[in-house]
Fold:
Amino acid sequence: MNSEDRALANILSGKENKKKIMVGYEGKKEKAKDIKSPLTDIMAKARMPWFCPKCDSIMKKRLDRKMWMLFDHCFECQLEEEHKMRVEGTFENYEKRKFFLNRRSAIDEQIDSIKDWLKAGDSTFVEPVNIDTGFVHVEKYERPQELIDEANEALKQLAATKNEVNTILEELNG
Ligand SMILES: [Zn+2]
Structure:
C-alpha cells in the first residue's frame, strides 16, 4: 500500500492523519517524493483504482483489471460501451485500430519510464550546511525493495497488456 492509498484507507476507516506528526517529516518526505514521483505517476496508471472512474462501482474482478488496463474503466462499463457501439454501429475497425495503436505506444512509454527508473539506482543528495567550513549534509535515498518489486510487477502486467493489444491489432488487420 503506498502512502496515498494508506491515507485513503485511513480516511475511509475514520482514522484521520495526524497533522502534527506529518509536519515534522515534511522536509525529508518532500525529497523522497521528488524521486519517487515519476514512478508513482506511472504506477498510478498501471495500478487499478478501487473504484471505476466512470461508474464509481468497486473494481475487484479479474476482468475489471483487464478492462482497466485496456480501457481505463471497469468490465461492466466496457460491456455497456460495446453494446452501445453495436446498437449505434459506431467504432469502426479504423477507429479501433487507432485506439489500440495509441494504447500500445502509451504502454511502451510506461515500460520505458519504469525501466529508466530501475536503471537509475539509488540517489544521494548533498546539501551545503555551512558555506564557510564547507560542511555538507549528505542524505542517501535508497529505494525500498517494496517499490522495486512493485515496478517489476508493473512491467510484467504492462507486457501482458501489450501482448493483448498486439493480438487485438492482429485480428483487426486480418
Ligand atoms: Zn465502470
Remarks:
- The chain has two domains: 38-89, 91-174.
- The two ends are 42 Å apart (CA to CA).
- Confidence is low (pLDDT under 50) at residues 16-30.
